[in-house]
Amino acid sequence: MKIAAFGHYPIHRPLHGGQRRVAAIAAEARRAGHAFRYVPVYSTRGYPDGSPDERLTAVPEPLLDRLHDLRRREDLHLAQLIEGHPLARHLLDDLRRYAPDVVQFEQPWLYPLFARALASDPVLSRARIVYSAHNVESALIDPCWQATARALEGELVARADLVIAVSAADAAIFDEWRGAGRARTLVAPNGCWPPAPGEDPAPLAGPYALVAGSAHPPNATGYWTSFGEIPGFLPPGSKLAVAGGMTHLITADDRFRRYERMNAEFVAPLGVVEESCLAALLHHARAICLPITEGGGTNLKTAEALMWRKPVVAMRPALRGFEEAEAMEGVYVADTPEEFRNLLRDVMTGVRRATRRAEEVARYGWHARLSPLIASYGSSLQ
């Protein structure tokens, strides 16, 4: 089966959760024998490291000032901005030449570029439409844009031959939008790749707890709620390692700067790290922290933490879509910041441990998590 997928970021070097999910879908679809072609339409200011092929469909430089105008929202207004531009015509012409069996939208933002052609073009109207949702986007967007986003997302949900959600809660919302008599939303939860064997040295000296996340603002909210302005509750000699794009959100915050010298004693800000470094951080961490307090969908970092079989200390919202994991040994779930800090201190002092087996956590690997979607390419979309 020939599948053409569209998204608003490159996946050549996946860093944040959305990129990782799309890269995993592409890998699993190809592994199953499908021809999977992913086309990103994106801003090179936000994603400067796309591959040469991916940069062919990046938003042209002359349009970037308009795309990043504060009166617009980059994802929501992306299709509107490039409609009528030669890039839009190129995307449609290239899609016709490819003549896909399935056109898949990773998140809803690019759908308006193709809606008319998918309805009336002699070649493209034969394609089945898949909406691969990462969240209920219109529930998370700024209130001033919610109505516009809801209309766009709702149109795609209603029209798609198949809707994929990351959680049962999201699926229930989409099913309500689709109404009776339509194919039920398929749940293909987030996951991660199994830990790769390696013996890289520890990136930090001494014991540390790891928190990693993108520059998504809720990651910073969860950090401040869970750890406070200074993670001074950690045992002497241990640190909190902060990795990923969220690092800058933390260190640039006045709450961090107010106690900069004290935070230097307890916090190791690492920034965005390469995959090999992240794997070493996970391997040598004494605890993996999930200070998630808000947001929608499910979190890839939760699957990653479970797969590495280290003690996990999480705020309860981090287990959205992973509720069964709370029964696993070594998974410690808090309902309050105070409980979170006490659990983390217990783990760092060795009072609490983890002994999860590889076979227990195999269900959180991408191969298992995406199997409903991959199976649907060969059944419900034929």
E-strand count: 12
CATH-level-4 superfamily name of the largest domain:
Glycogen Phosphorylase B
Give the overall pLDDT as a whole number: 92
Rg (C-alpha, Å): 22 Å
Q: Spatial order of the strands in the main sheet?
A: 2-1-3-4-5-6
CATH architecture of the largest domain: 3-Layer(aba) Sandwich
| End-to-end C-alpha gap | 9 Å
List the total number of helices: 19
Number of domains: 2
CATH topology of the largest domain: Rossmann fold
The CATH class assignment of the largest domain is: Alpha Beta
Report the sheet-strand fraction. 5-15%
Low-pLDDT segments = none
Secondary-structure-based class equals alpha/beta
List keywords for this structure.
single chain, about 375 residues, alpha/beta, Rossmann fold, 6-stranded parallel beta sheet, 19 helices, about 40% helix, globular, transferase, glycosyltransferase activity, Glyco_trans_4-like_N, Glycosyltransferase
Describe the secondary structure blueprint for this structure.
Elements: E1 2-7, H1 17-31, E2 35-40, H2 52-55, H3 64-67, H4 78-82, H5 86-98, E3 102-106, H6 111-120, E4 128-132, H7 137-140, H8 146-159, E5 162-165, H9 168-178, E6 186-187, E7 208-212, H10 217-227, E8 239-243, H11 246-251, H12 254-258, H13 260-266, E9 267-271, H14 275-284, E10 287-290, H15 300-307, E11 312-315, E12 331-334, H16 337-348, H17 358-361, H18 366-369, H19 371-377
Parallel strand pairs: 1-2, 1-3, 3-4, 4-5, 5-6, 7-8, 7-10, 8-9, 10-11, 11-12
GO molecular function: glycosyltransferase activity
Organism: Thioclava atlantica
Keywords: Transferase
